[in-house]
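Ticket #253: bound-state structure for 2-phosphoglycolic acid.
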Amino acid sequence: MRQPLVVGNWKMNGTRDSVRQLLDAIVAGVSADSPVAVGVCPPYVFIPQAAQHLSGTPVLLGAQNVADHEAGAYTGEVSASMLKEFDCKLAIVGHSERRSLYGESDALVAARYQQAIDHGLTPLLCIGETLEQREAGETFAVVDSQLDAVLEKAGIQSLSKAVIAYEPVWAIGTGKTATPQQAQEVHAHIRQRIAAQDADIAGQVRILYGGSVNDANAKSLFGMADIDGGLIGGASLKADAFLTIVQSAAETI
Ligand code: PGA
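RESOLUTION: The complex was predicted; output attached.
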């Protein structure tokens, strides 16, 4: 049985004040015995504030990225060990905005993933195709190559300490969500591909869906057999919507 996971990716949004308000509401809405694991990924600069706010609560803290090196002359980067010092448990890697807007390659994403694994952070590895790739019938090939790049470096066993997020690029921030069937088809494919290497790990690894998940569509997506929760962008900035999404995940258990 895979415990559902719902993670908010706040992207580059928030102020000290809005972070405090959002965390207050999320903490109030997630009980210690929640059947759904819940996490939030604020911008780096708010991580110390969030760590303090979330201390002693079941809400997991995550970062939106993590450096591909241990330490040193890497201006602008934040290392896995720094994130650990501030109680981060999760780190998103390979988000499509990092890949497309900041040119992050599969190799760089794999190095970031490896750093997270090495330091005991759970990498949330994002993979997904563009609209052009989907229309060209390349969806499976794209997610396979993004996944393979990471597994070739970190090994299949690393997936026992990781989470995958399938996020079709055409669905991110566009309001155009994949249908539950479209998402399930890709999730099942990803799980089968992992099963070809290790059936136990395939059965255990959580595969989240991301891309315009909201309080209205979450339940039908999370009800699919291979969808184990969601990575939520826009809707995670509104506490009510985010908590309804968490509740939707609980209802599908
Ligand atoms: P969205 O973003 O929910 O705003 O589409 C999801 C993501 O980028 O993780």
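RESOLUTION NOTES: The chain has a mean pLDDT of 98.
TICKET STATUS: resolved
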